[in-house]
Amino acid sequence: MTQRTATTVDTDRLPAVLPAVAAAAVAALPSRLHKRLDAAVERLAGVPVGPLDGGVSVDCGPEALVTLTPGPAGAVTDPDQARCSCLLSPRCLHRTAVLLACPVADPGSHPGPPTTAAASPTPDRADAASGRTGRTRKSAGAAPTKAQRAAADALWRAGAAVLSAGVPAAGAVPQAELLRAAHGARLAGLPRAESAALRTVRGLRAQRGRQNGHRLAELVEVLHDLLYVAGRLAAGDPDPALVGVLRRAYQPDGTLEVHGVCREPVISATGYAGVVTHLLAADGRQLSFGDVKPGGPDRARDCARAVTEMGAVSVNHAVLSRGGLRITGTTVSPDGRLGAGKGVRATPLAGTDWATGALAELFARPLAEVVTAQLATEDPEDPGRAGTALVGGDLVVVGAVGDQVLARELAPATDAAAERAPVPDGPLIRLVPVDAHPGLAHVANLRRLASRPGLRVRVVGRLDPDRASTLRPLAVGPVPGAAATLRLPPDWHGRADLGYDEIQGGHLPPRDPAATTGPVLAVGADAVAESPLWRVRRLVELAVAGGRRAVAEAARGDGAGPAGPLRRAGFTTAAALAAALADESDRRGRDAFGRLTDPDPDRYAWAWLAATVHLAAAERELIRSSWTASAVG
């Protein structure tokens, strides 16, 4: 008899499952059992699970023990790797529910067994089936093929059905349809659409399971990307960016000199943790080298001085972040990650501070100019990376409000002997913690900085894509030539990593009695939060959270709806799109017997997508303008 443990089902312990395997299990399940599938998945939260013969076993009741035996890569890639002991197996509720409770595997990392379509690829599918790195056949800008348009149309229909139903009704069967459509997109060579579909399924599961660290806005974003890409491809749009790339592989980069900028602790909501060291190449490229593996907050904290293998060299992240390397045989991914293959050789370089060499270029341009350039540039294969590059600036602290440190940008130096003043009429910049976890030092360090109004500080961080004139700082250092600035130990090489290094009172200048927090008293909400566009955001988020009927009910209960206030504030396009979404959500048809029916979700999905696209563009423009607008007070 199999030994049972007291451990309950946890998606962190269950192996990942390929989308095609999970979708096939739902398709094989008798339709009469579909209504019981969601309840069966929910019941697994309290069911014992334990190790068994290289896999795991899940106790689903008398004479129903489901065993999963993943392959060498750690994922279930074949239907035969999931078995149930009941008499109805494999078309049983137990096996299907367990497969749907498992995390969704990345098909690129866990290739499954060859299928008929993949083993004998047509010309339309040859590149996708081969797993070739680089762009697909559409790199020349050709129109999508018939197979690609059909796959995109299936994704659109599955995504529109999920949107119309909303999170509460987007259970196992709608998710399985998305997984099936994602597999079809993979066979047709549509990696961007496939990725968006898989992220949508993961977001739906996180939202339905109320997982910590997952926001509704993130699900809105990925569903928007799915419908945007699928809708344009299904319509025959020849833009090659809609296809994406099959696999973003590391490419040889010869000999490379890199200099450390800072370390960043990583704590992921999906169960990964570690450290990433940000680097700057001599040619100005921003690169990174990380050690992120399954783990929790303790691993992120312990990685402060972790040693990671880079080829034949052991790299200490604390040393690398303040030093540099000359690397030969290096490989670099398209998003700037350094490879650690066996052929890599590295020689240490002397540490430099932020005021010299290539690192000084981070602070050479005004923040408004850098922000405008970042928000105007998008990675067509990975739109979510827009605005994520590191930015640097010299600031003066003026105080704090809540968890925000308020600062103003310093004007360029005109006289080497003079103290730099803030930029005239410059925006009030908010510094917010990258990660507020109590095991990290971000919050405590920002509080230290806020306690010294008038402090001059050099900051490296990222833009906050959702808040006006806001930075999330990763590291700080002294401003060259300033008197009221940080006084860091020599072995810190002029920088403090806010997630790891703890700023003490001795690192700060004496208090200046003349510095007051008067200006912060007039600070209100940021431009995005204060804008009437919040009405549109509430509407598009309600559509995902509650479905079509929730939008219709909200519009009926809001009198004139959101269009009036938006139109009076000058947002006429947003008002028209919000009104169209509300009207479409309440449109009902009748069947041949005169009974009310739910209409096809196609028009409703297009109305939601139009409102969401406009909202994203308008909010981005508000954020861009907030860096050039005059400060209040």
Could you explain how this protein is built, in words?
- Helices cover 33% and strands 18% of the residues.
- Mean pLDDT is 83; it is low at 1-8 and 115-140.
- The strands form 7 sheets. The protein has a 5-stranded antiparallel sheet. Strands 16-17-18-20-19 form a 5-stranded mixed beta barrel. A 4-stranded antiparallel sheet has the order 2-3-4-6, with helices on one face.
- It is of the alpha+beta class and 633 residues long.
- The chain has 19 helices and 23 strands.
- It comes from Micromonospora echinofusca.
- Residues 106-146 are annotated as: Disordered.
- This is SWIM zinc finger.
Features:
single chain, 633 residues, alpha+beta, 5 domains, 5-stranded antiparallel beta sheet, 5-stranded mixed β-barrel, 19 helices, 18% strand, SWIM zinc finger
Number of structurally distinct domains: 5
Strand tally = 23
Strand order of the largest sheet: 10-9-8-13-15
Proportion of helical residues = 25-40%
Low-pLDDT stretches: 1-8, 115-140
Gap from first CA to last CA = 74 Å
What shape does the CA trace take? globular
Number of helices: 19
Q: What is the radius of gyration computed over CA atoms, rounded to a whole number of angstroms?
A: 27 Å
| Largest sheet geometry | 5 strands, antiparallel
The overall average pLDDT, rounded, is 83
Could you tell me the strand content as a percent range? 15-25%
Structural class, judged by helices and strands? alpha+beta
